[in-house]
Design a protein that fits this description.
This protein has 312 residues and is mainly β. It contains three helices and 16 strands. Strands 1, 2, 3, 4, 7, 8, 9, 10, 11, 12, 13, 14, 15 and 16 form a 14-stranded antiparallel β-sheet that branches. The longest helix has 9 residues.
């Protein structure tokens, strides 16, 4: 008799118990900022990771959907990035030994309206079988950049495990009137790769002190590309239908579109460097940032100011 597909087996776990279950929250942190994967452990039973068929996905846990939350950008693969926010996650088998961790709604720093960033990983045999799903962070041992922290997300289930390399940049806290701001020390090579292809990168976050009010998001990401600057609310993972409801992209009404003008730098910068952050006319923010051989002047409206219709 053919065993049921792994994804079907664990979909049934949602119905196994209506009582709240313990959630595990393995965390990668660096300079006061963090990335956390939250999941419900599930016991091994008769199936393991190697039974997932290529092209199929696993929801990566039991009960409510597993989520990935970060208060800083998280990078993986060549130069893929997930912006600060919260995302529903799943594990996809792409080939015989190739897996990827998918983060729903995170595509191209949440500007591609619902696509998923897929962080690649490899399937290997473990030294000791895991009797239940175990997810943790292990040292990467590869990245030497002192302004970043690299690790591998290890997903263990049975005698097999998947290792997904990721890294997070250092953080420089800054002040702006009425806001707490983080600038991220992203290496020049990563920024240059995204800049040359016209991709937007989350370079700063803006958060109000205290808890968000009303329907305000937890924070805003300042995304900058070769041609545009924009404030985008932090993504939020679905909460309806046990977290398996439709992914809702950040509302357009809460975005603020600005501009960026690039010039050649007088000296190269090894990491993103923010040298000026100030308010100017009409309450806009004007920000000077640099990386590699580029210096950019960004001007963008305050996220909580009324939307200027002539610039949207």
């Amino acid at each position: 008799m053919t065993p049921p597909p792994l994804r079907c087996l664990f979909a049934l776990a949602l119905l196994a118990s209506l009582a709240p279950a313990q959630r595990e929250k393995p965390k990668l942190d660096f300079q006061g900022r963090e990335a956390v994967l939250e999941y419900g452990p599930v016991r091994l039973g008769k199936h393991s990771l190697d039974e997932l068929k290529p092209g199929n996905s696993w929801r990566l846990g039991r009960n409510t959907a597993s989520t990935f939350s970060a208060t800083c950008p998280v990078f993986g693969g060549a130069d893929d990035v997930v912006a600060p926010g919260s995302y529903r996650v799943s594990l996809v088998r792409d080939g015989e030994k190739k897996f990827s961790l998918h983060m729903d709604g995170s595509g191209d720093a949440v500007l591609s309206r619902g696509a998923a960033v897929a962080f690649p990983g490899d399937l290997t045999a473990g030294q000791k079988p895991a009797e239940q799903l175990e997810i943790d962070w292990v040292p990467d041992g590869q990245k030497k950049d002192e302004a970043a922290k690299a690790a591998k997300l290890r997903i263990r289930f049975g005698e097999w495990h998947v290792l997904v390399p990721m890294w997070i940049p250092g953080t420089k806290p800054m002040k702006a009137p009425g806001w707490n701001v983080d600038a991220f020390l992203i290496p020049e090579a990563t920024l240059e790769a995204r800049y040359s292809r016209g991709r937007a990168t989350p370079v700063l976050t803006f958060r109000k002190p205290g808890k968000p009010k009303g329907d305000d998001p937890a924070g805003w990401n300042l995304l900058v590309s070769k041609t545009e600057a924009r404030f985008v609310p932090w993504m939020e993972a679905p909460t309806d239908s046990f977290g398996f409801g439709a992914v809702q992209p950040p509302p357009e009404a809460k975005m603020r579109k600005g501009s960026v003008v690039w010039q050649d730098a007088s000296e190269k910068k090894a990491h993103l460097e923010v040298s000026k952050l100030e308010r100017v006319k009409e309450g806009d923010f004007q920000i000077t940032l640099a990386f590699g051989a580029h210096v950019g002047t960004v001007r963008v409206p305050d996220p909580l100011a009324p939307a200027p219709t002539n610039r949207q």
